[in-house]
Every structure is written in C-alpha cells, then in structure tokens.
C-alpha cells in the first residue's frame, strides 16, 4: 500500500500589533483514505478518499484526537458510511455543525463531492497549540495521522 507524507508551513498575514504565529502541519496516510483537514478551531475533521474509482466502507473506523498531549476525543464512524471515490467526508463537532448550517443558508448547500456527519458527543474537536488526529480502520490498523502545531514566528 502506498504511504504518503506531507508537511506544510503556513503563516497568516501579519496584523499590526499582534504576534505572528506559524502553523506547522504534518500528515501521512497509508492507503486511499487520508485526513485532509482539521481546522485549528475544532469545527470539523475532514477525510478524503484519494481513489479515483473505489468507494471505501468506513463503518466502525475510529477517529482519535489528542489536544496539547492530554485531552483525547474518540469518534466511531457509524455503520453504512461509505466514502465515494475522490470524495470528502466532514465530521463536524456540534459547534462546527451550527456554524456550517448558518453559513450554508446563503448557498446551495454542500458540494456533491462532500458528505457530512455530526459528532454530537463533542462541542468542539478541541483547539490548542498542538493537535494530533489519528484514523484507525475497523481492524485496528492506523491509516492516517494529521498533526499540527502553532509556534510563534
């Protein structure tokens, strides 16, 4: 199975009178499904199926998120969730779902290439200076890791 590692460093535009922060993002995946995005505000976790022609059954897969090395959140994907080829699945926190619903009122809704779920067990996926998100398949094999840290620039 292919293994892919990526590292990104992004910095928001500087604002006069504030500290500049640098976001360091590292991600790796084994197989077709990877963690695409985890906004620092904890609104959602985005999974991506990179296969051009194969749907992936995510039933009973587990997302684990660790914030600042201590808080750990877990989410088990419900049965019958299939991630279509080249599609995204966003798993929102309660707060993230509320924000997305209010911003979608002015648009036609979610893209057809995006599926959405809500984890009603958490208000936020957590925000901190350091987050690690793990995707584990139904057999307990780690399929993807997404870590980000915020450092003063």
UniProtKB/TrEMBL annotation:
Per its UniProt record, what PROSITE patterns does this chain match? Answer: LTD
Task: List the Gene3D superfamilies.
Answer: Lamin Tail domain (2.60.40.1260)
What single Pfam family name could you report for this chain, choosing any that match?
A: LTD
Q: What SUPFAM superfamilies does the record tag this protein with?
A: Lamin A/C globular tail domain (SSF74853)
A single GO cellular-component term on record: nuclear lamina
Q: What keywords are annotated for this sequence in UniProt? A: Coiled coil
Extract the InterPro entries matched here: Lamin_tail_dom, Lamin_tail_dom_sf
One record GO biological process: nuclear migration
List residues traversing the bilayer: none
Q: Where is the LTD domain?
A: 21-150
Q: Which residues form a coiled coil?
A: none
**Which GO terms fall under molecular function for this chain's record?**
structural constituent of cytoskeleton
User: What protein name is recorded for this chain?
Assistant: LTD domain-containing protein
């Amino acid at each position: 199975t292919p293994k892919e590692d990526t590292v990104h460093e992004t910095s928001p535009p500087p604002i006069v009178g504030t500290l500049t922060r640098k976001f360091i993002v590292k991600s790796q995946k084994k197989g077709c499904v990877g963690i695409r995005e985890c906004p620092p505000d904890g609104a959602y976790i985005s999974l991506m199926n990179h296969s051009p022609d194969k749907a992936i059954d995510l039933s009973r897969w587990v997302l684990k998120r660790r914030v600042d090395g201590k808080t750990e959140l877990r989410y088990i994907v419900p049965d019958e969730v299939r991630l279509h080829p080249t599609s995204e699945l966003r798993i929102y926190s309660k707060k993230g779902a509320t924000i997305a619903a209010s911003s979608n009122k002015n648009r036609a809704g979610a893209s057809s290439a995006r599926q959405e779920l809500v984890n009603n067990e958490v208000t936020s996926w957590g925000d901190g200076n350091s987050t690690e998100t793990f995707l584990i398949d139904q057999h307990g094999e780690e399929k993807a890791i997404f870590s980000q840290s915020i450092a003063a620039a």
